[in-house]
């Protein structure tokens, strides 16, 4: 995993790498089946075969057998393969091959709750308040799993699903998410309303500042 516009690290470490002499080897990383990302040929960096979008965006640390990919973008997501060849009796032989899957992460903004006015002003003394709420978060990646609402009265909390709309910016590929909820809030009881953006198993969740009614 790498954060958007940060450096991604693609490892090619293998057993007994400390004893390998880089001058005997051809080491290259490729994306998919045909895009060469970086190549080291007998100890020298070689640029002839590189895919244009990776030129001047990579640096290799042969002590750690790791490729650094600078300014990682959403278009860089995907499968990378590292291949190490050594010449045996004049013909190249693959002595190591490893694959890694690169995922890009961009942080969503903290979800924010807004009160949508329905034409009539909300009066605090009305016996019950019918609220139209929206909760929004923007500029994140990958696509969120879902957005839920947490409604708390005194010692009880319940979870509700609103109507959620997810859109993706055509240029940046980042996602914006908005959920709308219509809810009846009882009078004279403090109600705390929060909104929770679920980002997936490993990325956790983001929660809004609670709205107290």
Automatic annotation (TrEMBL):
GO biological process entries: cell surface receptor signaling pathway; cellular response to lipopolysaccharide; immune response; negative regulation of T cell proliferation; positive regulation of T cell proliferation; T cell costimulation
Keywords: Cell membrane, Disulfide bond, Glycoprotein, Immunoglobulin domain, Membrane, Receptor, Signal, Transmembrane, Transmembrane helix
Gene Ontology annotations for the cellular component aspect, listed alphabetically: external side of plasma membrane
Membrane topology: Single-pass type I membrane protein
Alphabetized Pfam families for the sequence: C2-set_2
Stretches assigned to the Ig-like domain: 1-85, 111-150
Subcellular location: Cell membrane
Record-linked PANTHER family: T-LYMPHOCYTE ACTIVATION ANTIGEN, T-LYMPHOCYTE ACTIVATION ANTIGEN CD86
The protein's name: CD86 protein
Source organism per UniProt: Pedionomus torquatus
Gene name tied to this protein: Cd86
């Amino acid at each position: 995993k790498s954060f958007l516009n940060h450096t991604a690290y693609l490892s090619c470490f293998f057993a007994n790498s400390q004893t390998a002499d880089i001058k005997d080897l051809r080491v290259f990383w490729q994306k998919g089946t045909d895009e060469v990302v970086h190549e080291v040929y007998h100890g020298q960096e070689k640029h002839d075969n590189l895919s244009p979008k990776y030129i001047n965006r990579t640096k290799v640390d042969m002590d750690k057998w790791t490729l650094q990919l600078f300014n990682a973008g959403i278009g860089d997501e995907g499968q990378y393969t590292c291949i190490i060849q050594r010449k045996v009796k004049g013909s190249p032989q693959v002595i190591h091959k490893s694959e890694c899957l690169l995922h890009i992460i961009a942080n969503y903004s903290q979800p924010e709750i807004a009160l949508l006015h329905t034409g009539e002003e909300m009066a605090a003394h009305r016996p019950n308040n019918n609220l139209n709420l929206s909760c929004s978060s923007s500029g994140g990646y990958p696509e969120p799993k879902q957005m839920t609402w947490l409604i708390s009265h005194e010692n009880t909390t319940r979870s509700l699903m609103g109507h959620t709309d997810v859109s993706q910016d055509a240029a940046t590929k980042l996602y914006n998410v908005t959920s709308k909820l219509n809810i009846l809030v009882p009078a004279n009881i403090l109600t705390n309303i929060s909104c929770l953006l679920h980002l997936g198993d490993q990325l956790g969740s983001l929660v809004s500042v609670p709205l107290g009614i």
